[in-house]
Design a protein that fits this description.
279 residues, alpha+beta, ten-stranded mixed sheet, six-stranded antiparallel sheet, 6 helices
Length: 279
């Protein structure tokens, strides 16, 4: 079931989830965002909206609603459903040949947040040959998603990392990926990946804390050189990887643990600033 809770928003109208039509996003073109909700707060919503409009601009599409309007719709959705913890899917669907007709869809969608055990022991990842045509645009791609899901299910993985035609690792199917060697953090260049909101926050944390971070292409043959690997994403936060197929990594790495703690603090501070802006 794609739409959960009681209500969703279609354009500017609040509707019952019982009337949600999943097929509406299966044709045409859609840009979208996944927004995590904690303590009733949509985390980093301004960053998500900025990326949504960037995605549409890359594809030469124009969103009718303003950022402030969508922000208010998001708050309305949370309040109407009285949700404290969850994940919202924000979709702008362009449904005509010239992409002038569009629908705005905002709804709570099923989610999985990693367990304490997965944060402690790490998760298993595999590899999948796939290239995003517009890596900086967050576009619904049902076929690519299904291909990745098939590999995940078949090999009983948590995530798959995408390989380009030259066997460089770009990103996860629903995450960004980072590598650590001798306390230096590496991640693929921003131009080659979807620039995730969590990724953006990690780069900012590294800058603030004077942690060494290098953006460079990571070849499949280099995997054995790294001490630790982690994924980042809206649902994942900072999630250790215990192995990528036959390559195993440390999940207790000092730099990795530091980043996990710092990201947790960042979220707590964000929620505090929203709920108590004067403090």
């Amino acid at each position: 079931m794609e739409c959960i809770q009681k209500y969703f928003i279609h354009n500017k109208t609040i509707k019952s989830c019982s009337s949600f039509n999943e097929s509406v996003i299966e044709t045409g073109l859609s840009v979208y965002e996944m927004i995590r909700v904690e303590k009733g707060i949509p985390l980093f919503i301004d960053d998500h909206l900025e990326r949504l409009y960037t995605s549409s601009a890359i594809l030469d599409l124009k969103i009718e609603e303003t950022k402030e309007e969508i922000k208010q719709f998001t708050q309305t959705l949370i309040q109407k459903n009285q949700v404290e913890t969850g994940k919202i899917k924000l979709v702008i669907h362009f449904n005509s040949e010239n992409n002038t007709e569009q629908d705005l869809l905002l709804y709570f969608t099923p989610y999985y947040f990693p367990s304490k055990k997965e944060y402690k022991n790490g998760v298993t990842a595999g590899l999948c040959k796939a290239v995003r045509i517009n890596p900086n645009a967050k576009v619904l791609n049902i076929q690519a998603r299904q291909k990745a899901n098939n590999v995940i299910v078949e090999k009983k993985l948590f995530e798959v990392l995408l390989l380009d035609v030259n066997d460089f690792i770009t990103e996860g199917s629903r995450s960004n990926v980072f590598f650590i060697k001798d306390n230096v953090i590496y991640t693929p260049p921003g131009k080659d990946v979807l620039q995730g909101i969590t990724r953006k926050n990690i780069l900012h944390i590294c800058e603030q804390q004077n942690l060494s971070l290098i953006q460079k292409n990571i070849h499949l043959s280099e995997l054995e050189n790294f001490d630790a690997v982690f994924l980042s994403g809206t649902s994942l936060k900072v999630l250790p990887v215990k192995n990528i197929e036959t390559h195993f990594f440390g999940t207790k790495n000092k730099t990795l643990q530091q980043l996990m703690d710092l990201y947790h603090v960042l979220i707590k501070q964000y929620i505090k600033n929203i709920t108590n802006p004067a403090s």
